[in-house]
Every structure is written in C-alpha cells, then in structure tokens.
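yo

u said u wanted the structure for the complex thing, so here. seqs first:
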Amino acid sequence: MTLYLMCLMLFCVGLYGVLRKRNIVKMIVGLGIMEYAMNLFFVLIGYRFHGRAPIDAKDQDIFNMVDPLPQALVLTSIVIGLGVTALVISIAIRIYEKYGTFDITKIKKLKG
Amino acid sequence: MKAIHIIPLFVIIPLATAFLISLVGRFIKRSSEVIIFISSLALLGFSVYARFLLNSVPGKILVYKIGGWMPPFGICMVMDGLSSFMLVTVNLIAFFVAVYSLSYMNQYTDKPKFFTLFSLMVCGMNGVIITGDLFNLYIFLEIASIASYALVAFGTEAEELEASFKYAIMGSVASAFIFIGIAFLYSFTSTLNMADMARILAYKQNAWVIPFVGVLFLMGFGLKAALVPFHAWLPDAHPSAPASISAMLSGILIKTLGIYSLIRIFFNIIGSTQGYLTVLMFLGAVSMIVGVVLALSQWDLKRLLAYSSISQVGYVVLGIGLGTPLGVLGGLFHLFNHSVFKSLLFLNSGSVDYATGTRDLKETGGLGKLMPVTAKTNLIASMAIAGIPPFNGFFSKAIIIIACLQKGFTGYAICAVIGSILTLVTFMKVQKFVFLGEIKDKLKNIKEAPFAMLFSVVCLAIICVLGGLMLLPSLRFFLDDAASVVLKGTSYAGVVLEAASRQ
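structre next:
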C-alpha cells in the first residue's frame, strides 16, 4: 500500500509541475514525472512479492508469477511518452526561437 | 474474402498511406496528392460498404480476431452499429477535407508531411472506433492526439506554436488520467478486452473502484471532448491549425476521442447509472450555454467557430445523457450533423482566409458578391447549425428538445432552445460581417476559391440540405442501429463474445 501511495505522490509532484510552473521546460519535466508515475503504478499492479519471471517449464511447479501483461503494456506506454516528450520539446525550442523566453506568462499572443 | 476481413482495412489503409507518402512524397512531385486522394476515397467507399454489409450479418455485428486468438486473450476488433456509424462519419469528413487540402495547402510548404500526419490522424481515429480492447483504444487515441498536436503547430508561427504547446500539455494530462483509469480497471477485472471486462464488471457490482474510475474517465475524455469545465484548450488550438485541420479537429476528432469513447465506456462497459447520466446532462447543458455566449463576443472568425463547437458538443452530450431511445438517437444524429456543418463552416473560413488573408470580422465584408459559392454554402451551414427547418440541424435539435420534454426535463429543453437562438444570432453576425455589406477597398480584387476547395464545400452543403432524409424509414437503420448499441448497454459483452466464437 505504501508503494502505491508513493506512486500517487510522484504523480502529484508531476501534476504540480505541469500546472504551477512558469517555465515551459519545467512543465515538460513535470509531464515526464507524471508519465513515470503512471508507468510505475501499472507495473506495480502486476507485481507479486517474491514472484518470479512468468516462464513456464515442464518439470517445475510455479506458484508465484509476476503478471507479464502490464510490463508489455508499459513498454508501449513508454514509447508513447517518448513521442510526446520529443514533440513537446521540439515545440518548446521553436517557441524559444519566436518569443525569446521560456516564461509561460510572457507567451500570450492568443487571447479571448 | 470473408466479410470480417474488411475490418482491419480501416487501420491498415491510412497507416500504409502515411508510410508510402513519407517514403515517396519528397521525390515524386504531386505523388502525395494522388495517394491521399485514392486512400481517402477507398476508406469512404469501404466504410459505406461495411455499413451495408452489416445489414446482412445476423446480430449486426462483426468481430475480427487479430492473429486468430479468442477475445479474452487476444485483441479483437469489433464493428457494430455504433462503430460503423462513426466510421462513415469520420471517413466522409476526412475525404472532403483531404480533397479541400489539395488546393488549400498550397500556401504552406511541405505538403507530403502534412498528408502523412493527416493519414496518421485518420488511422488513430478509425482505430479508436473499431477496436474492442481498452488498451488498444488508448494507443490509437495517442496516435490521433500526437498527430493532431503536430498538425496544430504546422504553420510554425508564434501563435500556432503556443496553441499547440497548450493543447499538447492538456492532451497529455487527459491521456494520463485515461491511462490510470485503464490501470485501475485492469487490476480490478484482470482483463483488457472491453466485452470481457463488461461481463466481469456485471457481477462485481457495488465496488468503490467503479465510481472512481468513472470520474477519471470523465476527466480524461471530457478534456478530449472539451466539455465546459475542461474546454480551455479548444478555442486556442482549433483556430490556430490550418483550416482543413480545424475542420477535422472540430468536426470529428473531439467526437471520436471524446464522445465516442465516453459512450463506449460508460454505456457498454461500466454500465450507465442515473448518476452518470445526470452528470453528462448537466455538463452538456452548461457547455451548450457557455460555449455559445463566449462565441457571441468573438471577432476572430475561426475562434468564434471553435467556441460554437463547444456549444454544439453540449447538445450531443445532453441528448446522449438523457438515456432514452429518442434522446440517444437525437444525440447521435446531431453528432453526424455537427461534423458535417462545422467542418463546412471551418472550410469556408479557410476559403475566406485563403482569398483575403485575414479572418478578422472587422476587416472583411461584402465578400458575398466576389465569392458567391462560399457565401451561399456558408449561409446553408449557418442555418443548419442554428436549426432552421429544412436543414439537418433542425431535425436533430428538435429530436433532442422533444426527448427532454418527454422525460420531464423542461429546464434543459429551455436551455437547448436558448442555445439555438443564440447560435442563430452568432451566425447572423458572421454572415453580416463577412459576406454582406460594402466591400473594403483593399479587398476589391480577390477571387473565388479554387475548384477542389469549392467541390468539398458544395458536397458538404448538399449533405446539410439532404441530411434530414436520414430519418426516412428506409434510411433510419443508419441511426437506429447506432442508437440501439448504446441502449443495449452492458449486454454488449454477450453479443461480442458470442459473435467472436461464431465468426
């Protein structure tokens, strides 16, 4: 249970970074932390204490296997996170070229 | 070829198109335009064919098992009435937008990259609609979202980058909530197949997980659908994109990623309770009023249209939230109608921008004489969105209002009428300031938009005029089958699993 709560804390740290920071690079870092927290949470769901790798063998009795599905899903999710981060960082670089600042309060040409 | 083999084509064709265009588009001139035209036409043809194919199948459901694995273990793709309704809507709009872009995108550099991202977005949306696996839905949702973040920033001007950044951050937060919701559902049911999940949830009632997951999904998909407390990104993101992409985003992306997923999860997997329906109706009604009131005060043409999208999505959510057969039918019909006339309006705003170089309502005026086709089609779309009788918008709004009254929600019905009147006022403002009045001196020698752009808007205007015919008994199956899937609720599970073992 403690592990799950720490996961939640990590998620909240990320969310705080995204919502409250003024520097867009810090917002992107917050986004990354959020993604790590949710991936960690999903892997923890499949984890069993003292479990072993889910490889079946004929002459063995296996009682405590780790659930392999979340691991496969999290791999996919990490790749998606990589894509989003790469795109957002490239947008941030272009924003810096146009505005000359990373401060989100000074980037406000849109209004209404 | 068996009937079920048509299902994966909806993902394969746009993916292959994206690959092919990025491969040859740079070297062979104009090849990207030919490829995108053929592929979007093929997708439209297949989706209409699949809709008629579905009528000849018992149970009106097709299940394709990827790799031949039976559903609880493998990923399956499900095509039922609702999926094929959404597929026709998405591919219809995508085809016309692709044709429009052939000319419109001349003012941007690098058409092949644009069409690559466009195909990826269509692939993501088709995947979200067709999939029967919850994690697969998340993957396709992210494909469509990432492609749309890049497309919003396509012009790489300061405003576009800013809008795209906001949109990407909000979209990623929404995706995080959806992902956590999926993780909770997986840990609770130990399955990811939507049908199997619904079956397991049906006999695990009264768990605290379900309302919690419901809230997570409502936040996630509500952000994607831009319902009112979560709408802040939409009025920035939709106007900043190129006009054809605004049409895609407002016309179908928010409906596919937001509303369709919301319907599928709340009605078919979790099972709708009165609590969810009340929340949906309330959010719908608030969106309806807030969106149109904000739209009224805008002077940027595309920003006005974006706010009006929020309001119209409110109608769809209100209709579906009613949960009665008539309400759901009206909501889905309005979803189709809105994607037609809102993409038409956005394409017309693109034509105005293309011809005059501005979309500020104070700087245009009197374009009606110089751009007759755009003015006429815009008038049709404006009347349709405001709900003037012969056009399609009237029928869907009337159905939603009648359904509200039938269930005794007079307050919501009055809200819908007020929203409709304010929409009429908003679009009269557009007509007055853009197409009527005296022409400004510096706009004296503008020209009507090129043929490809006019072809799309005229076809969409014809659909607006004839859309009401879908309520005729011989064509009703298109809407009725979609509504019946929503109304069947969690018995979706049994239908899918039974069809999977049979086909």
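The beta strands of chain B are 62-65, 76-79. Chain B touches chain A through 33 residues (CB under 8 Å).
cya
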